[in-house]
Design brief:
14 helices, elongated, ten-stranded mixed beta sheet, alpha/beta, binds NADP nicotinamide-adenine-dinucleotide phosphate
């Protein structure tokens, strides 16, 4: 048998330990599939003394991830530390500089520095693989880079933060407010140390930035995304959306239109009967659309030890077989800067607001919407006990500019009792 592929694994938390476990448990299977053994030469983390519930005594230990990345007995540097700067970035750069392939689960690193890392890797003739960085165990990167390589990709959509989907579906199933479910998630340890990464849409935005680059052949540009979190979604929004046949999801959408690239990670309404609408709990779903293939839907665990380590090992096996792919599907110097669209593809919108309980209040709001050139599909006024009345409006398709003009004119009607909330209804 040919020489083993030797790994150096930096970071022994959830994903790192999962990766070590697969290498140990499936040594024979991996050797057969990859055509050569896959071994671990060295590992490292912050604390050497921590009991990680996995056998590490056979491997060299490195406190410093940069030193680990440069070791002569490491062919592939597996970066499982996390974070867009600091040791993860320094060690990935050091590995590339030393001519090693890099496998990483770090979406933040790739979303912020993907282009520079891809250029450096190409210059050194090494690969960067990152299946685990987007939607955990779902092989979405492989699908885009390989399976759909013959397609022009027309749209990419996805629910890619399990915590947000858990919060939204639990609010709905238990009739709870956002804050109550958020506190539950804190107690259960479901949130990142900085929870705005989850509920603010940033973590999911990092993933969408990566998918957008591959799908549309552009440089990864996190700044080109519109990002909005789920913090303002109320139980009433969820209930009323359900009443109209929709579910609310933190949905990433990237598409290329005549206007340019549109990429946003925002709360949206999707039909309750659609695959995205039916997605419950922490599960992830990615929908890919290509000119030849049509629409495909990928669904599975977006996080956790097993699913994420499974994705890491898929990349490792590919490298063991000698597969070399351009990092984002094209040589880095062929990736264009994204031409970001200044307007969104027209969509129907859900508008929620409270109006003062005055005669003609609803008519005044309807006329402001009409004056902005938007027609109304459905309108509901909900029962109320105070001097304000909750109102829900679903528009026909409208441009974002027209919608903003309508919202901007609403305070002038003198009947508005709360700031309007507008959510896009995505065609899925
Ligand atoms: N967890 C998931 O389900 C999941 C899913 C998809 C992607 N990811 C990505 O996978 C990566 C790892 O996530 P994780 O959940 O496994 O994180 P984690 O459990 O927090 O583990 C991080 C590991 O990095 C080590 N580390 C931190 N700073 C270090 C330093 N300066 N030098 C050396 N080691 C250092 C830690 O050491 P100690 O253990 O000694 O503290 C720990 O072992 C991140 O990029 C994350 O975004 C995670």
């Amino acid at each position: 048998m040919t020489s083993p592929l030797r790994l150096g694994i930096a970071g022994l938390g959830t994903v790192g330990v999962g990766t070590v476990r697969i290498v140990q448990r499936h040594a024979d299977l991996l050797a057969e599939r990859a055509g050569r053994p896959v071994t671990i030469s060295a590992v490292g983390a912050r604390s050497r003394d921590k009991d990680r519930g996995v056998r590490l005594g056979d491997y060299a230990w490195e406190d410093d991830p940069v030193a680990l990345a440069r070791r002569d007995d490491v062919d592939v540097f597996v970066e499982l530390i996390g974070g867009e700067e600091g040791p993860a970035k320094a060690a990935a750069e050091a590995a590339i500089e030393a001519g090693k392939h890099v496998v990483t689960a770090n979406k933040a690193l790739l979303a912020m520095h993907g282009q520079a890392l891809a250029e450096a890797a190409e210059a050194k003739g090494v690969s960067i693989r990152y299946e685990a960085a987007v939607a955990g165990g779902i092989p979405v990167i492989k699908s885009l880079l390989e399976g759909l390589a013959g397609n022009e990709i027309t749209r990419v959509m996805g629910v890619m933060n399990g915590t947000c989907n858990y919060i939204l579906t639990r609010m709905q199933s238990e009739g709870l407010g956002y804050q109550a479910v958020f506190r539950e998630c804190e107690e259960l340890g479901y949130l990142e140390a900085d929870p705005t990464l989850d509920v603010g849409g940033i973590d999911a935005g990092h993933k969408l930035a990566i998918l957008t680059a591959i799908a549309f052949g552009t440089k990864v540009d996190f700044g080109a995304l519109t990002i909005e979190g789920i913090e303002k979604i109320t139980f009433e929004d969820i209930e009323q959306a359900a009443d109209m046949g929709y579910r609310i999801k933190l949905l990433g959408v990237a598409q290329q239109s005549g206007r340019g690239l549109e990429a946003r990670m925002t709360p949206c309404l999707v039909p309750a009967s659609s695959p995205l609408g039916q997605l419950e709990g922490p599960t992830n779903m990615v929908v890919l659309e290509g000119d030849s293939v049509g629409q495909i839907v990928l669904r599975g665990a977006g996080a956790g030890e097993g699913p994420t380590a499974s994705a890491v090992m898929g990349d490792v096996c590919d490298l063991a077989r000698g597969a070399m792919l351009p990092v984002f599907g094209k040589p880095a110097d062929k990736l264009a800067s994204p031409a970001v669209s200044t307007t969104d593809t027209p969509a129907a919108y859900y508008l929620r607001m409270a109006l003062l309980d005055k005669p003609g209040a609803l008519a005044r709001i309807a006329s402001v919407i009409g004056e902005a050139g938007i027609s109304i599909d459905r309108m509901r006024q909900y029962g109320h006990s105070t001097e304000t009345a909750p109102v829900l409006i679903v528009t026909h398709k409208a441009g974002r500019d027209a919608l903003e003009a309508a919202i901007g004119a609403m305070p002038g009607t003198g009947v508005l009792a709360s700031e309007p909330v507008a959510l896009r209804i995505e065609d899925v």
